[in-house]
UniProtKB/TrEMBL annotation:
GO terms for molecular function: choline kinase activity; ethanolamine kinase activity. This is Choline kinase 2. InterPro entries: Kinase-like_dom_sf. Gene3D superfamilies: 3.90.1200.10, Phosphorylase Kinase, domain 1. One of its GO terms (cellular component) is cytoplasm. Belongs to the choline/ethanolamine kinase family. Coiled coil: none annotated. GO terms for biological process: phosphatidylethanolamine biosynthetic process.
Length: 420
């Protein structure tokens, strides 16, 4: 309990002006290495848009031809076609024939860029046909320099493993700068959806299902090592003015302090999404099922960190004129947090005790501090390496760090000494 008899979750509710933010928004066996310039394909299965019970993916097929990237096939032009690399266009041309045959003209595609992606450029590719039902796939072009945040080979293995578990989209093909994915015929959530009670319950249940997946690899917490690595990246890229503004000289000590304090409240290490913003959650309107997408930042971490990240995302809306702006007054209130936690804990059967709920709530409150540092450092580094995406990364970082410094005394210091 915090001072004045309030719980920590109540004490930590921010009382601040609207602030600024954003997120980037994420294993089947590893595939054999292919020549860097060659595209790969995995299209030898029936294309289905079903959320569950999908057949295993076959191994990718190497593209025919040599290693020199030839020009892609002549495709009908649309607004964003110039952003699609030649290797990807060859995959799209082959996929159209393999997936839909004579039902579509492979060259008659339309390309449109999807908004809200902060790590990669994402495009919807559409072919007309099929009794008026357009055929779609998604093309993801990796952001410049974002490999400093995660190992791309690990991320692809995670993507493939998730697909084998019936989670998220299927991998259709890979090329040096990105990949082609199944287009999920579901609605991406919006910022207001996170506050919808029914949808919040669905997310809590899905997150518990995600955390219960049997994923390969060491079950070691990655958070603290990742924070230190990103801090070193930031220190190596920032100017003297930025170094001072973002207090980079003191953040190593802050990370160490948080690790010591928060490791004592860990209540289980699971495979976490680590980026549960509304744009990475989709809902099938007819079945009311949700699916989580984009696993680039996924890794083993404490349960409380994943939930804390999600709660912080209530403050964001990436589809406004100022997508970097976060309003932390929209952080979920105590009732919303408790309802989510109760659903999460109870979704595997049984009724969680009040003590279990309060314990996880307090842990989540503390891990919001780690979330602020996580995405603050991400914003600093992204501002230096990712030039493809129009987003105010550094301004976003300022907001996350400001929120860290403002809320730390209420969340961490009073939690450690409730009498102060």
């Amino acid at each position: 309990m915090a001072a004045g008899g309030r719980s920590l979750t109540e004490a930590m509710s921010p009382v601040v002006r609207p602030r600024l933010s954003v997120l980037p928004p994420p294993r089947h066996l590893a595939q054999p290495q292919v020549a860097r310039a060659a595209a790969t394909f995995c299209f030898n299965y029936r294309y289905r848009l079903l959320p569950l019970h999908r057949a295993p993916l076959p191994p990718p097929m190497a593209a025919a031809g040599g290693h020199e990237p030839a020009a892609g096939p002549a495709l009908n032009r649309s607004g964003s076609i110039d952003r699609i690399p030649a290797e990807a266009r060859r995959i799209l041309h082959r996929l159209a024939g393999e997936l839909w045959g004579a039902d579509v003209d492979p060259a008659a595609l339309a390309v449109s860029q999807l908004k809200g992606a902060l790590t990669n450029e994402v495009f919807r590719v559409t072919w007309p046909g099929g009794e008026g039902d357009p055929r779609k796939v998604l093309v993801r072009i990796y952001g410049q320099g974002v490999d400093v945040f995660f190992d791309r080979a690990d991320e692809v293995r995670t993507f493939e493993c998730m697909s084998r578990h019936g989670q998220g989209p299927r991998l259709l093909g890979r090329f040096p700068q990105g990949r082609v994915e199944e287009f999920i015929n579901a609605r991406t959530l919006s910022a207001p959806d996170l506050r919808d009670q029914e949808i919040s319950v669905l997310i809590a249940r899905k997150l518990r299902e995600f955390h219960d997946l049997d994923m390969p690899g060491p079950k070691d917490v990655s958070l603290w090592q990742r924070l230190r690595r990103w801090l070193e990246e930031a220190r190596g890229r920032c100017s003297a003015e930025e170094f001072k503004e973002f207090r980079l000289d003191s953040l190593g000590g802050e990370i160490a302090e948080l690790e010591k304090a928060l490791s004592a409240v860990d209540r289980g290490v699971v495979f976490c999404h680590n980026d549960l913003q509304y744009g990475n959650i989709m809902i099938y309107e007819e079945t009311r099922q949700v699916t989580l997408i984009d696993y680039e930042y996924a890794s083993f971490n404490p349960v409380a960190f994943d939930i804390a990240n999600h709660f912080c995302e209530f403050a964001a809306d990436y589809h406004t004129a100022t997508p970097h702006v976060m309003d932390f007054t929209k952080y979920p209130d105590t009732d919303e947090q408790r309802r989510f936690i109760q659903t999460y804990l109870g979704s595997s059967g049984g009724n969680p005790s009040d003590t279990e709920v309060e314990t996880l709530l307090d842990s989540v409150a503390k891990y919001t501090l780690a979330s602020q540092l996580f995405w603050g450092l991400w914003g600093i580094v992204s501002g230096h390496v990712n030039k493809n995406i129009d987003f105010e990364y550094k301004e976003y970082a300022r907001q996350r760090f400001n929120q860290y410094w403002q809320t730390k005394p209420r969340i961490l210091l009073k939690a450690c000494n409730p009498t102060c």
